[in-house]
Amino acid sequence: xxxxxxxxxxxxxxxxxxxxxxxxxxxxxxxxxxxxxxxxxxxxxxxxxxxxxxxxxxxxxxxxxxxxxxxxxxxxxxxxxxxxxxxxxxxxxxxxxxxxxxxxxxxxxxxxxxxxxxxxxxxxxxxxxxxxxxxxxxxxxxxxxxxxxxxxxxxxxxxxxxxxxxxxxxxxxxxxxxxxxxxxxxxxxxxxxxxxxxxxxxxxxxxxxxxxxxx
Length: 215
What we know:
Layout: E1 2-6, H1 11-22, E2 26-34, H2 48-58, E3 62-66, H3 72-86, E4 91-93, H4 100-112, E5 116-118, H5 126-135, E6 139-146, H6 160-168, E7 180-186, E8 196-204, E9 207-214
Parallel strand pairs: 1-2, 1-4, 2-3, 4-5
Antiparallel strand pairs: 6-7, 6-9, 8-9
InterPro entries: Diphthami_syn_dom (IPR002761), DPH6/MJ0570 (IPR030662), Rossmann-like_a/b/a_fold (IPR014729)
EC number: 6.3.1.14
GO molecular function, one term: diphthine-ammonia ligase activity
């Protein structure tokens, strides 16, 4: 029942981590995929020092590897296998909610490394999930978002007021369609809060990214 967690640094992966522990699974290591240059995470655009600060707050190791999208699956399986040789893990925890193709992929790569995929958030109501996270003491900020939201949302906290704002804009409450991504800065299982601030904002294609610095 030992697991590695696919760790984006955001609210969904961290809530899956939390729910897996509630189910009796024991965390051993976090896994994060960086872009091909190794300067920020592939999914959320978060720098390595910030992700390392989260791992320190969890008192867990974090394993990184760099990858382009074209080599992503091959590299992911390779590094899952490395983790199974390094840590006593039997399961892989993921934070996906209801996109069937994502679940199928996670089960596929886990099987390739002789791990069992666990999706603790699967088929939960998206809005209820976010509200449950907030009520449970999860404190997350927006670190990237599409142009439908715009750069003014970068750095804003995920709270009940902003969920209402999302709904008024026709944005999914959980951001599950890729509208926004978050960074978890505090949670009941963190030994200390992650102190970050938005130093700058960048635009890449249809996406806005916060340049974060640790304080």
